[in-house]
Amino acid sequence: MSINLQSHVFAGNPLTSKSSNPANPFSPTTGLETIKARLLGNTQSASSSNFKVLLFSRGRPLASSVSVSVDSPPIWNLGWIILDDLIGLLESAGVHLNGDQFVYLGSRADDDVAYWATDVSAERNLMPLLRNKQLCFVELRTLMVATDWADLHAMGNLAIAGHARALLEWHNLSRFCGHCGEKTLPIDAGRRKRCSNESCKKKIYPRVDPVVIMLVIDRENDRALLSKQSRFVPRMWSCLAGFIEPGESLEEAVRRETQEETGIEVGEVVYSSSQPWPVGPNNMPCQLMIGFFAYAKSLEINVDKKELEDAEWHSRESVRKALTYAEYKKAQSTAAAKVEQMCKGVEKNQSLAADFNVESGELAPMFVPGPFAIAHHLISSWAFQDRVNNSDEGHSKQPRDSLSNL
Ligand SMILES: [Zn+2]
Known about the structure:
- The chain is 28% helix and 22% strand.
- By secondary structure, the chain is of the alpha+beta class.
- It folds into three domains: 28-173, Nucleoside Triphosphate Pyrophosphohydrolase (Alpha-Beta Complex); 175-206, no CATH class; 209-324 and 364-396, Nucleoside Triphosphate Pyrophosphohydrolase.
- The strands form three sheets. Strands 1, 2, 3, 4, 5, 6 and 7 form a seven-stranded mixed sheet that branches. Strands 11, 12, 13, 14, 15 and 16 form a six-stranded mixed sheet that branches.
- Strand 5 and strand 6 (114-119) form a beta hairpin.
- Pfam families: NUDIX, NUDIX-like, Zn_ribbon_NUD.
- Its EC number is 3.6.1.22.
- It is an enzyme of class 3 (hydrolase).
- One of its GO terms (molecular function) is NADH pyrophosphatase activity.
């Protein structure tokens, strides 16, 4: 079964940084001036009701959750706070923010609200007040698993939160100039930074780390190569992936990584699609997963045990069985219940709903990552590709895949 997505999770951000909406009178820079004035207590400045702020703590966005019916999982939402309300909360908590750490996220085409984010990890006094409002900081990965991938609004929220998290984490990692070592300062409403050293003034841009991710295919025997890593949950198999070396093309990176990790030689490399991935390692605020189909020229596997736990060829039939739709729905409802429990406040001695590792399921002897990951779509588009189509050099055609309209 293939799962219909409009775009990959974390792509398709509904906020745009350049608003064409004439009802929005604020450029990002003048908007930030207004926010700073309001935070200083200047109530004469322009109305701040059309400023909404998303708070983050330790990389986690503020979220809320509602239960709509007993038959369906709870639905999470981003915990946007109108600037005036945020100022009230800050006053109650005795917290002072000067606005320097606010980053502009953009605005929608159809409203006059400017959306912002800021990190309040250090403001412990704020936390109980947010909890009283049934708002809670939740790991973005948990929200990702908890999302109904058919819900476009929720998918948009994931993209917004992913972008905001990537920007804020990049701010944390770029506090000093790599050129002269002086402090950096945010400019352009937090979307860029500049060295504070007048004789340097180096401009620093948000960072994206590209990663190649590939499904290696044995065309003759109709099999795909899947690998296991020790950090994976048990019985999970996925695509190979790796970083690109300086001076290397994407195709070369696909061939080199496959060769290094499994000893398999790759010939033709075909691009599929790409996915922003703001939930990778902490030192990489936003990875860009660039997905390929890679056609094997040799078939003997020689696993580099330092990189992988195992790698095996899997038949199309066994891969289809591993793509068990019911298990992904189960993982989603479990994660959604966990978010609900966190937002509604779970006593310390009560346990949360089990983590999404339960997606390892009870039915399948193996499974592949859920629909939130590009690996899922590389694997499922191959697994559900028409056999006749494939034997007829189908690789050169667009796979009959849920993402073929990207
Ligand atoms: Zn500098």
